[in-house]
Amino acid sequence: MKDSNKSNSKLPVFNSHVYCNEYLVDGILHSWKGATTEVFSTIHSKDKEGNIGPTLLGSIPDMETETALAALNAAEKAFNRGQGVWPTMKVKDRLRCLTTFAEKMKKSREQIVELLMWEIGKNKQDSYKEFDRTVDYIFDTIEAYKKLDRKSAKFDKESGIHAHIRRGPLGVVLCLGPYNYPLNETFCLLIPAIVMGNTAIFKPAKHGVLLITPLLKAFQESFPPGVVNILFGRGRKIASPIMETGKIDVLALIGHSSSAVALQDLHPNKNRLRLVLGLEAKNPGIILPDADLDSTIKECISGTLSYNGQRCTALKVLYVHESIVDEFNKRFSAAVDNLKFGLPWEEGAFLTPLPEPGKPAYIQELIQDAVSKGAKIMNAKGGELSENYSYPAVLYPVNDEMNVYHEEQFGPVVPVISYSDINEPLDAMATSEYGQQVSLFGRDIRKLGPLIDVLSNLVCRVNLNSACQRGPDVYPFTGRKNSAVGTLSVFDALRSFSIRTFVAAKDNPYNNEILDALMDSKDSNFVNTEYLL
Ligand code: G3H
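Above: the input record for the complex with glyceraldehyde-3-phosphate. Below: its predicted structure, written as tokens.
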């Protein structure tokens, strides 16, 4: 087995090294003098000595607990038990800070896209999409918050009690994102968290970390001190000690349930900890006998193998009716073998190097385990190995004795199972640990109708003749069982990071006079009926 990015192209050159020695705490870009960790890409290139291997991209601080606790103090101080500048600030002023940030962020588009490609191997088109989608998410959040605020700019009256109801912040948020969407998914937590008046500590994922560094200054210049604090390093030295203090009010994490549970367990006051979690999934595709195979195969290719299957929403197992499974396997396997592998910036590269150095070996283990238990690799290129890639293998027939049946592979391997009775996939979904989404392929409405009714109670999104996906971001993104806690969408995230809180007063002349005067005086940002246009 040899290196070489498994691509026909010449060895690439990386000239944009980032040696980050800064971190943001309490509104100050501190310089880091301690240990650092080198960041490598699994994409191979030549080093200064002429050796070919993983590419050095730069380095990040390897921070100690002391700094993490300083960041926590800064976030606490900025929230100041709800009395801080940020949580009491007028909504329009908070939104102004966010707009300033988004405008500054746009200037780093090219640098961030380049780092996305090198750090996590995401192809160029999807890297631009991730960046642009994130900027759009910020502006959509601003509009959603204005709408929410407009709805709240009024008094209700019920049973002789006036009430002014708003959504208020929860406190300090620890925000941890994943490597597969290091910008988008992290910001889909961080942005709604802070816009609602919370303060935050944010630590980027292990891969996809350098791409956050161009934004440090933008964060510093856009928000009051302590509102956003950014740390680099290992979770056990940063996230764990922060949780142990019990001072975190919201754990916002996109990642694995094992990490979420471990962090939650460290918190001494679990009942005070709100969880906003996007976790693992094993979304199935169910292909009915009358499915249109051309469009089904197209959707299954993008569903299983976009970004090499490294998406929580990826289709991770395909249930195909026995009457069409041979035809499906033949055509699907041919389509998989036709996918172009290339470096992320190469035109048309659909499959790209895997960012986790151990991933190709893990995928091979899944393949070997399945093959040793009776599965076959259906496509000619399936399982071809290089140092940073394992070509997608279509495995058939897969059964529940195989690891690939149970584990979230999060990579390029596609298990196919044939069924004769629709209750087989339904039972499997009901007993599964996961419940995010399903893709249902078919046409006969007498079959589809009752199936949709059942599936919608097993997962949170039924995709009809369409691959599973998170977007558009205005739609609710959530899951049952081990797949999520809370709901994210532009609007739902604002709810997830806030709590309803209100001012109530009995309807009598004495109170009414005070409320009238309060509204006229503008002494309160809360009791205020101003409209944000
Ligand atoms: O990793 C999970 C992501 O939320 C998936 O998002 O469906 O837009 O790729 P996506």
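Notes for the reader.
Residues 124-152 form the longest helix (29 residues).
The radius of gyration is 25 Å.
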